[in-house]
Amino acid sequence: MELLQNLLGTEAGLAVWTLLKILAIVAPLMIGVAYLTLAERKVIGYMQIRIGPNRVGPKGLLQPLADGVKLLMKEIILPTKSSKGLFLVAPVLSIMPALAAWAVIPFTDTMVLANIDASLLFIMAITSMGVYGVIVAGWAGNSKYSFLGALRSSAQIVSYEISMGFALVGVLMVSGSLNLVEIVNQQGHGIGGGSVLSWNWLPLFPLFLVYLISGVAETNRAPFDVAEGESEIVAGFHVEYSGMAFAVFFLAEYANMILVSALTAIMFMGGWLSPFPASWGALGASGVIWLLAKISLVLFLFLWFRATFPRYRYDQIMRLGWKIFIPVSLVWVLVVGAWMMSPLSLWN
Amino acid sequence: MLQNYFPILMFVVVGLLVGVGPLLLGWLLAPNRPDPEKLSPYECGFEAFEDARMKFDVRYYLVAILFILFDLEIAFLFPWAVVLKELGMYGFGVMIEFITVLTIGFVYMWKKGALEWE
After folding, report:
1. pTM recorded for the entire structure
2. Of A105, A231, A248, B101, which is the most exposed, with the fewest CB atoms less than 10 Å away?
3. Scanning every residue of chain A, which has its alpha carbon at the shortest distance from the alpha carbon of B39?
4. Using the beta-carbon criterion (under 8 Å), do B10 and A100 form an inter-chain contact?
5. Res A278 pLDDT > 90
6. How does pLDDT run across A78-109, given as a tens digit for each residue?
7. Domain ranges in chain B?
8. Element at A57 (helix H, strand E)
9. Is A21 part of the contact surface with chain B (CB cutoff 8 Å)?
10. Are the beta carbons of A77 and B18 separated by less than 8 Å?
11. Is the CB of A315 less than 8 angstroms away from the CB of B117?
């Protein structure tokens, strides 16, 4: 960094240094997205007693590359009836929030790009912009399927955002901060002297479940994927997209999955903290490897859900979101509040 | 203070570029052979007989309205939740009152059938 500042002057040096750090987050994330698509096909394959892709490269490891090249060489179709400008803006609108939210994700207590106090608020704000990509894409496509898909998808996303918000209120109550670094550090003491038992998932268990399932619904993943519903509305809001325009939507969907998994790991599963007590030496040491392990665990759950559950009907999805999750999370917020006021409070 | 937010602004710009880049690449590298059939909106094998921007169910609108209400409640709950430990019993009592009023509204809209999707 000092070298850069000497070369380019203080401000330009800082900007280039920040840009390098951003690329150090975005590049692994994109590779992660590419291999998540392969992992999805492999995992679901083995769950259905198939092998999954195994032709391109050793054990199919180059498959994502082949997919990328194929999509790159496909024509980007601009349908005559579509609104051309909006049609091209929509994919950009949907990938920007999925990436920009990573600016405040802490990987360890010092490894974070922007350690701001309102980081959780920023995440809430930027991720809720993702719905614009969906609405704009569905509208601009001017096809019945994309329109229906966009309506369904946006209503579902906003519904589950409410229960996610209530679950986060519970986390904020016990941690007393909007800063993600402090939210993780707070989980480091409590029952068991900072082990798996002191993390938020245990005292906030109902909120943890609500958050996890809402996360699946929020990213339009199976079993909540009526927005895509191949068998009824072919592909939902992005039915008119082809080539790289489709690929950008695809990247955004998988980047969002990784983001939701990272947030679940940070908010409820102790982030980079080790699941073992600190007295266990190397096993008890915290580190970025634990965060990655937890993110992978949640991502595996995403894939497992898709292989296991049949798709919900739309009315069932809305009932689950409004009539079950909102009351459950509201009640548990009050329970946690009363718990904190009582002498039995764990969070002093 | 504001300096902390600069990386976020840069990240937003990088996010936009990651969206625009592939589109440009695809436009440069991919073939472009338009054809009236190919460019017509997708419909199962026949010509689209009306504009796709048709009337839609009013319940989607209702969901949007309810979302704004509840999201606002959450925005009110956030600052309270952060300082609950300092507020103590009084702050908790006041918020119980707030959530009670919210729950009355919630029960009303439930009974009115605003959440039904037969």
Report:
1. 0.90
2. A231
3. A79
4. no
5. no
6. 877 778 888 888 889 889 998 989 988 888 87
7. 55-118
8. none
9. yes
10. no
11. yes
The CA-atom distances, in angstroms, between B3 and each of A18, A112, A113, B7, B15 are 12, 14, 12, 8, 19
Q: Which helix (H) or strand (E) holds A299?
A: helix A288-308
Contact A43, A304 (CB under 8 A): yes
**Chain A residues touching residue B82 (CB < 8 angstroms):** 172, 176-178
Partners of residue A93 in chain B, C-beta under 8 Å: 19
Q: Which residue from B8, B51, B81 is facing A103, i.e. has the nearest CB?
A: B8
Q: Cβ of A93 under 8 Å from any chain B Cβ?
A: yes
pLDDT tens, residue by residue, A117-139: 888 888 988 888 888 888 888 88
pLDDT digits over A173-186, tens only?
Answer: 888 888 888 888 88
Q: How many beta carbons lie within 10 A of that of residue B32, not counting itself?
A: 9
Q: ipTM of this complex > 0.95? A: no
Q: Does the CB of A273 have a partner CB in chain B at under 8 Å? A: no
Report the length, in residues, of chain A: 348
What does the pLDDT look like over B37-74, one tens digit per residue? 777 777 666 666 667 677 777 888 888 888 888 888 88
Which residue in this structure is represented by tokens 């959450």? B74
In DSSP notation, A64-122 reads: HHHHHHHHHTS-----TTS-HHHHHHHHHHHHHHHHHGGGG--SSSS--S---TTHHHH
Q: Do A130 and A256 meet the contact criterion of CB atoms below 8 Å apart?
A: yes
| B 60-99 → A contacts, CB under 8 A | 60, 63-64, 66-67, 70-71, 74, 77-78, 81-85, 88-89, 92, 95-96, 99
B29, B27, A33, A95: CA torsion to nearest 10: 170
Domain range annotation of chain A: 1-72, 77-347
Task: Identify whether the C-beta of residue A139 lies closer than 8 Å to the C-beta of residue A147.
Answer: yes
